[in-house]
Amino acid sequence: MAFAAECRIRADVTAAFDAAESAGPYEHVTVIGKSAGTAAMAMIIPDRAGLAGADLVWLTPAFLVSGMPEGMARCQNRSLLVIGTQDPHFNEVHLQAARERGTKVIIMPGLDHGLEKPDDMIGSLEAMASIIGRLASWVR
Questions:
Q1: I want to staple 33 with a disulfide (CB 3.0 to 4.6 A). Which of 6, 38, 53, 96 is the partner?
Q2: Contact 63/39 with Cβ under 8 angstroms?
Q3: InterPro entries from the entry (predicted)?
Q4: Residue scoring higher pLDDT (132 or 4)
């Protein structure tokens, strides 16, 4: 079952990238994925020559998905990673490996997988404003 799902995701993401590339050319590309989207990025981007120069944003990377950390490690692109300390995917070993590859890692204290602080709407909004500001300053 997992293999069939992976094949569908790979086909869907490949089709999306094919469509985007055919609409180009682009001066610069930034790919942003969140959660399962980061697993799709890790699955596809390392083998797409057209994305070799793209910037990558990994929001709450799905480190628990089989093969995701390895695929992410194959991406040599300029990268930004954002994760909360209360995210079940939070894994210091994977974060350190990302840092060693040159990825800018932003760890948000108390945020969960939705990049929210449970039962704290104001804190969640403040955290989101911080993330957006840091993302905006990082994007070229």
A1: 38
A2: no
A3: AB_hydrolase_fold
A4: 132
Q: Read off the tokens for 88.
A: 């079940």
Total domains in the fold of the chain: 1
SS3 label, residue 105? strand
> Which tens digits make up the pLDDT trace of 70-111?
999 999 999 999 999 999 999 999 999 999 999 999 999 999
Amino acid at 11: A
Rounded Cα distance between 52 and 49, Å, is 5
Say whether pTM exceeds 0.85. yes
Measured between alpha carbons, how far is 86 from 117 in angstroms, rounded to an integer?
Answer: 9
CATH code for the domain of 125: 3.40.50.1820
Q: Are 45 and 77 in contact (CB under 8 A)?
A: yes
Domain carrying residue 100: 26-138
